[in-house]
Amino acid sequence: MKKVIIRTDASTEIGSGHVMRCLTIAHQLTKHGANVRFMMHEVQGNLIDFVGEQGFGNITTFELADLYIIDHYDIDEVWEQKLRTYTNKIMVIDDLANRRHNSDLLLDQNVVPQFEKRYEELVPAHCVQLLGPEYLIMRDEFITARQDMPNRTGKVKSLLVFMGGTDPTNETLKILTALQETKVTFENVHIVVGSGNIYKDRIQTICAELGFHCHIQIDYMAELMLQVDFSIGAGGSTTWERCYVGLPSSSTIVAENQRIATEYAAELGAVWNIGWHEDVAISSYVDLFNRLSKEFTDLMQMSDRGLQLTASKGQPNPWLQEILEMIK
Predict the structure, then answer these.
(1) Residue 224 in contact with residue 234, Cβ under 8 Å?
(2) Are 3-136+313-327 and 141-309 in the same CATH fold?
(3) What are the CA-CA distances from residue 305 to residues 78, 88, 190, 235 (Å)?
(4) What is the pLDDT of residues 304-314, one digit of tens each?
(5) Topology of domain 141-309, per CATH?
(6) pTM for this one?
(7) What is the sign, positive or negative, of the torsion defined by CA atoms of 16, 200, 190, 231?
(8) Are 185 and 154 in contact (CB under 8 A)?
(9) For residue 38, what are the β-bridge partners?
(10) Domain map of the chain by residue range?
(11) 3-136+313-327 — its CATH code?
(12) Burial of 308 (C-beta count, 10 Å sphere; 0-12/13-18/19+)
């Protein structure tokens, strides 16, 4: 049995996106007989217990392994070089292209200008590069959901709000206030927060008062996306999940590493860019709700564009075969 160790973290600052996409990889590798463990630090807002509930243990010291997978913005070639004592194969998941890597396989699923060339000077010559939305890391629920998508009409009756696992800039409470101030009404409003959101109890109370559905640390996001007509979200990997199921959406940039991809996705017509979170006020979300009631055609075109950008060549998750080839 091949042994794989995944180095990643979640916290109130980092958010949960890294861990969630690594869990997708872990589940897929487990189906193919691999023994997968995580290596995460016990920082505030960590998801070590959640990962454990998914069936994956956490280690605190280096161990010999057939493959290390690294998904962490603070790790570069220096740390990776030290890993060579414990493994012959290293895979890196990155979004930023802002540091050098000592890796054998690199995956960056984002669409940014000239994404095909952004790692040319940052990885060894032998490193296999899997770049762009063809290599989206998609959970099985999303792959199934893409086959069962509703007919998008551009009319927004139901709304989904998910601003990331921890929502460090507190956008969810801004949006809840805007929903109370707007004259636009929705038949259903679904608010999703992660267990690491420090305001989750307050959010849950407000949702109960307003008759909204509140969901905490869920594993049925794709199902929700099929039930709604528009999503308000943060930039990052969830942008491409929304596109993958043809759900029109807006993105608020809540971290600097989301800026380029969010702005480019908006240029391509795949999302509405609300802007940098410090410049986004409650009134910005009120204006968004007003826009939703008018721009049916634009929303339908956004849905189609998202589907086009996230279409895979061949089977979904083609990165899986590349990993399996590394450890066979």
Answers:
(1) no
(2) yes
(3) 39, 40, 24, 17
(4) 999 999 988 77
(5) Rossmann fold (3.40.50)
(6) 0.89
(7) negative
(8) no
(9) 6, 58
(10) 3-136+313-327, 141-309
(11) 3.40.50.11190
(12) middle
